[in-house]
């Protein structure tokens, strides 16, 4: 009898049809529940992929120190994967990350280094590069590492195709490192070039964990614009309202970027008919409770 190890439980997440939040026009809205991964987010997939592939190449070995800049979910996932495989994980992040995220990383044994909220992820990435150049650890670099989208080409994309029986017409995803949308787009377009890939970025002034509008100098190197058919700007309030709708109308407790993904999917649904629209619910909402985002509205 085969008993799976923890890493073997990553992926194969549920795809569920929304029942109360309807898209009209005979459209079907499907939510891919990535919070069901063992460390609670879609980032479990690339975290394991980056470690496994680096080990296969011989560029890292158990006992090494690894360094990564993260805004949260990737850090938690990498801390888990490092614990499974025997690495010391150093995570650099903006101090604005929620307490739950920081505590989860520390619980897995990672060392945390904070940068200012004002410096943000750009400052975290700069510090990671400086520490690596000093020989303080080895890089994974989710922003430039092809093993990030590879996880979604091998896992998330095929799952969406199989779970919809090949009927998916639109895929909606927040864009941060862009690994999810790059890998899924590559797979789905190989299956059906007509599948529409919709990426989400925050509108100017919005601060939505997991969704980024990068300055040109910091654009992830894994990002290929031609793989995205359309990009929608998502507002702060819009994302938060739809995050609460997911919880209160569908029983799906998720983070703000997932609310943004629902908002984007509903926008698409207003324009099409008889479509099968899948969007990524990238994590669980329990890691945002201390932020007050789910507090009753006064």
From TrEMBL:
<dbReference type="InterPro" id="IPR001926">
    <property type="entry name" value="TrpB-like_PALP"/>
</dbReference>
<protein>
    <recommendedName>
        <fullName>Cysteine synthase</fullName>
        <ecNumber>2.5.1.47</ecNumber>
    </recommendedName>
</protein>
<dbReference type="InterPro" id="IPR001216">
    <property type="entry name" value="P-phosphate_BS"/>
</dbReference>
<keyword id="KW-0028">Amino-acid biosynthesis</keyword>
<dbReference type="InterPro" id="IPR050214">
    <property type="entry name" value="Cys_Synth/Cystath_Beta-Synth"/>
</dbReference>
<feature type="binding site">
    <location>
        <position position="257"/>
    </location>
    <ligand>
        <name>pyridoxal 5'-phosphate</name>
    </ligand>
</feature>
<keyword id="KW-0808">Transferase</keyword>
<dbReference type="InterPro" id="IPR005858">
    <property type="entry name" value="CysM"/>
</dbReference>
<feature type="binding site">
    <location>
        <position position="73"/>
    </location>
    <ligand>
        <name>pyridoxal 5'-phosphate</name>
    </ligand>
</feature>
<dbReference type="InterPro" id="IPR036052">
    <property type="entry name" value="TrpB-like_PALP_sf"/>
</dbReference>
<dbReference type="GO" id="GO:0004124">
    <property type="term" value="F:cysteine synthase activity"/>
</dbReference>
<comment type="similarity">
    <text>Belongs to the cysteine synthase/cystathionine beta-synthase family.</text>
</comment>
<comment type="pathway">
    <text>Amino-acid biosynthesis; L-cysteine biosynthesis; L-cysteine from L-serine: step 2/2.</text>
</comment>
<feature type="binding site">
    <location>
        <begin position="176"/>
        <end position="180"/>
    </location>
    <ligand>
        <name>pyridoxal 5'-phosphate</name>
    </ligand>
</feature>
<dbReference type="Pfam" id="PF00291">
    <property type="entry name" value="PALP"/>
</dbReference>
<dbReference type="GO" id="GO:0006535">
    <property type="term" value="P:cysteine biosynthetic process from serine"/>
</dbReference>
<keyword id="KW-0663">Pyridoxal phosphate</keyword>
<keyword id="KW-0198">Cysteine biosynthesis</keyword>
<dbReference type="InterPro" id="IPR005856">
    <property type="entry name" value="Cys_synth"/>
</dbReference>
<feature type="modified residue" description="N6-(pyridoxal phosphate)lysine">
    <location>
        <position position="43"/>
    </location>
</feature>
<feature type="domain" description="Tryptophan synthase beta chain-like PALP">
    <location>
        <begin position="8"/>
        <end position="283"/>
    </location>
</feature>
């Amino acid at each position: 009898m085969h008993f799976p190890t923890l890493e073997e439980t990553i992926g194969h997440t549920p795809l569920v049809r929304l029942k109360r939040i309807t898209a009209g026009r005979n459209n079907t809205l499907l939510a891919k529940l990535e919070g069901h991964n063992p460390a609670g987010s879609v980032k479990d997939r690339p975290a394991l992929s980056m470690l496994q592939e680096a080990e296969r190449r011989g560029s890292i070995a158990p006992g090494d120190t690894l360094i990564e800049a993260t805004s949260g979910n990737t850090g938690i996932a990498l801390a888990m994967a490092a614990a499974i495989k025997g690495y010391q994980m150093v995570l650099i992040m903006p101090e604005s990350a929620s307490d739950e995220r920081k505590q989860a990383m520390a619980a897995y044994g990672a060392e945390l280094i904070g940068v200012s909220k004002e410096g943000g992820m750009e400052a975290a990435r700069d510090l990671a590069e400086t520490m690596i150049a000093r020989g303080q650890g080895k890089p994974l670099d989710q922003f430039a590492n092809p093993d990030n989208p590879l996880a979604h080409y091998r896992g998330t994309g095929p799952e969406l195709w199989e779970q919809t029986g090949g009927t998916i017409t639109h895929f909606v995803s927040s864009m941060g490192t862009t690994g999810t949308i790059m890998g899924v787009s590559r797979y789905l377009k190989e299956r059906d070039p007509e599948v529409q890939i919709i990426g989400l970025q925050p509108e100017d002034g919005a601060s939505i964990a997991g969704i980024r509008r990068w300055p040109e100098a910091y654009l992830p190197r894994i990002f290929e614009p031609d793989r995205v058919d359309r990009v929608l700007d998502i507002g702060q309030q819009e994302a938060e309202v739809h995050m609460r709708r997911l919880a209160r109308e569908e029983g799906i407790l998720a983070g703000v970027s997932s609310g943004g993904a629902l908002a984007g999917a509903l926008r698409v649904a207003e324009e099409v008919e008889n479509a099968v629209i899948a969007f990524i619910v990238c994590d669980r909402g329990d890691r945002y409770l201390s932020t007050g985002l789910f507090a009753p509205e006064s």
